[in-house]
């Protein structure tokens, strides 16, 4: 064979071999796509099988995972759609379980106790769909810290019966700069229908009252909807509470420092006249409408605590068992029993350091004394009006004594 013929033969062979290789490559591709020339359904079948094994139940936990400054009232709610809850566990970071309850229809869960502030909680949820397939969800969150929250301490307490002069008084543990928003979230109503207006004495104290004393026998309701309300920059409320109290009989007592008598009235009628001894000319008693805020069968009174000291810095008096004492001001004005004074001073001379004294016995154990009678017939919230002392009118925020402001002045202190 000549070289030229040999080269032509190799060329033909190479061309035939190339055709075989090309056909082999195409054949492999056709087999991968399916012998019938259509699309491969194996992956779709895998996806369908996986979907059939996935629960349709959709679990939702609030607040969302990783949240901070969460509410202590409304956090950790769990809901499910397209299924029912089978298990919900909530624990603190140290593993302490939090009590909770799944709803009757098994579509929601919430804690049955209030959460703690500045605490990290973990929630684990299991639910099933109609086919019995399970779904799982987990979340953790941290509740609002004391530094980033505020609370209001209020008086009177829920379920109590108080006198006609008792205001609703709320003291906040943080200064409130967003007064309007906070006040809008506080509602005070009365069954008597009286208009109630709230007054800010300062950034921490809000008192609420009607124009005239509460109607006897009425019910007053306080609603605090402060949860999540921003009271100051970065500081949020946490309270969500409703309380109510009852107004008792209408008792107002009138102390006259000039006649040295006190007339106790109920429904405007005098029921008893009691001789008293008010503040001396050197230590006059404040004038004005004062509300009984505390009662003590016996208490200690030390002059040093209210600025009455001798040259050695000791109290001008220190009586460890003052009987039947009732507070009228934050600064130390009381109406109380007096066993150390002569019987003759009551009704005839003013001798005290500013309190109103009633004849009494040591030990507070004689119910027949004037001090015992007044104590036993008085309740928190009763009004004591002090007149003719020659001193100034008590400051409205010195105790629960906002009645010493006119209605116009009172309303001017509202932020809404």
UniProtKB/TrEMBL annotation:
Pfam family, one: YkuD
Keyword check for Transmembrane: no
Gene3D superfamilies xrefs: 2.60.40.3710, 2.60.40.3780, L,D-transpeptidase catalytic domain-like (2.40.440.10)
A GO MF term: acyltransferase activity
UniProt entry keywords in alphabetical sequence: Acyltransferase, Cell membrane, Cell shape, Cell wall biogenesis/degradation, Lipoprotein, Membrane, Palmitate, Peptidoglycan synthesis, Signal, Transferase
PROSITE patterns: LD_TPASE, PROKAR_LIPOPROTEIN
Record-linked CDD domains: LDT_IgD_like_2 (cd13432), YkuD_like (cd16913)
Segments for region (Disordered): 29-56
GO process terms (BP): cell wall organization; peptidoglycan-protein cross-linking; regulation of cell shape
Active site residues according to the UniProt entry: 336, 355
Domain L,D-TPase catalytic, residue spans: 251-387
Record-level GO cellular component terms: extracellular region
Signal peptide positions on this chain: 1-25
Pathway: Cell wall biogenesis; peptidoglycan biosynthesis; Glycan biosynthesis
Protein name per its UniProtKB record: L,D-transpeptidase family protein
């Amino acid at each position: 064979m000549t070289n030229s013929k040999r080269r032509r033969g190799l060329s033909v062979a190479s061309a035939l071999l190339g055709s075989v290789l090309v056909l082999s490559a195409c054949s492999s591709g056709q087999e991968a796509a399916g012998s019938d020339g259509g699309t491969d359904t194996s992956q779709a079948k895998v996806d369908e099988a996986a979907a059939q094994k996935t629960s349709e139940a959709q679990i939702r936990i609030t607040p969302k995972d990783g949240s901070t400054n969460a509410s202590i009232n409304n956090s950790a709610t769990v809901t499910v759609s397209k299924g029912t809850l089978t298990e919900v566990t909530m624990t603190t970071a140290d593993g302490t379980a939090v009590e909770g309850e799944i709803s009757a229809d098994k579509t929601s869960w919430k804690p049955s106790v209030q959460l703690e502030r500045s605490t990290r909680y973990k929630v684990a949820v299991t639910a099933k769909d109609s086919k019995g397939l399970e779904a799982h969800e987990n979340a953790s969150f941290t509740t609002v810290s004391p530094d980033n929250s505020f609370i209001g301490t209020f008086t009177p307490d829920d379920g109590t019966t108080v006198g006609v002069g008792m205001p609703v008084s709320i003291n906040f543990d943080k200064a409130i700069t967003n007064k309007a928003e906070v006040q809008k979230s506080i509602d005070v109503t009365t069954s008597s229908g009286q208009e109630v207006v709230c007054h800010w004495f300062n950034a921490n104290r809000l008192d609420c009252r009607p124009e005239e004393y509460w109607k006897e026998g009425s019910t007053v309701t306080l609603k605090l909807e402060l949860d999540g309300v921003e009271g100051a920059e970065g500081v949020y409320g946490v309270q969500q509470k409703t309380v109510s109290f009852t107004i008792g009989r209408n008792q107002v007592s009138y102390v006259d420092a000039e006649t040295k008598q006190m007339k106790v009235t109920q429904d405007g009628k005098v029921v008893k006249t009691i001789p008293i001894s008010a503040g001396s000319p050197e230590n006059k008693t404040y004038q004005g409408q004062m509300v009984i805020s505390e009662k003590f069968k016996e208490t200690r009174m030390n002059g040093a605590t209210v600025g009455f000291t001798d040259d050695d810095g000791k109290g001008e008096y220190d009586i460890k068992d003052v009987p039947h004492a009732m507070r009228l001001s934050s600064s130390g004005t009381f109406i109380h029993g007096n066993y150390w004074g002569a019987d003759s001073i009551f009704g005839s001379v003013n001798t005290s350091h500013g309190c109103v004294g009633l004849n009494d016995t040591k030990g507070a154990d004689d119910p027949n004394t004037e001090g015992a009678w007044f104590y036993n017939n008085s309740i928190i919230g009763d009004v004591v009006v002090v007149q003719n002392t020659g001193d100034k009118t008590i400051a409205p925020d010195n105790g629960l004594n906002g009645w010493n402001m006119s209605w116009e002045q009172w309303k001017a202190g509202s932020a809404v």
